[in-house]
Amino acid sequence: MTPDSIRGVFIMLDQRILVAYASHTGSTEEAVGTALQEHGARVDVHPVQDVTTLKPYRTVLVGSAIHAAKWLPEAAEFVKRHTTELEQLPLSYFLVCATFREDTAEHHREVLAYLDPVRVLLEPLEIGLFAGRLDASRLPLLERMLVKAMKSGEGDWRDWEAIHDWAGGVWEHLEHGEGEAVA
Ligand SMILES: Cc1cc2nc3c(=O)[nH]c(=O)nc-3n(C[C@H](O)[C@H](O)[C@H](O)COP(=O)(O)O)c2cc1C
Hints:
The protein is of the alpha/beta class.
């Protein structure tokens, strides 16, 4: 083993990653944590409201379902609440939505703009955009009515390979200390 590869093993052992998420029906967010684990990372996956400190973490991924063209409010609140700590860490954002069920250039632009309010707070190193699942039977009455009014209809558009690949890219950048933005 070369000194570099030994250092790499120690960095990997030392890495603890937080996936903090906001979700109403749990379509995708835990899968990001599972994919990171498969890449060898030590990962904690928690709803944003359960996270009180970022001290144990070397990097943080914050993700949310999209409602009304925005992250759920508790996810944006998480970023506001932890801005000072997050400024010191590699930070990634991801979202799960219905619009991205068709990965066109127009949808990419539209969906990326959902993150504008939180990118103003802090700019992440990496961004993941994912299609989710819309299943009205899992939603409370008011949301069920809103979904019926949405043009997308119901469906499960999750692309597990895309999620796995993105998580792998985040892991690669951590491992190799790269920090360019991906959006
Ligand atoms: C009330 C409501 C509003 C939504 N608004 C949007 C939206 O503005 N744009 C979009 O692309 N998807 C929208 N969606 C779809 C969700 O983002 C999608 O179903 C996501 O996978 C849900 O994630 P979750 O299972 O983690 O809650 C909406 C869903 C609901 C229930």
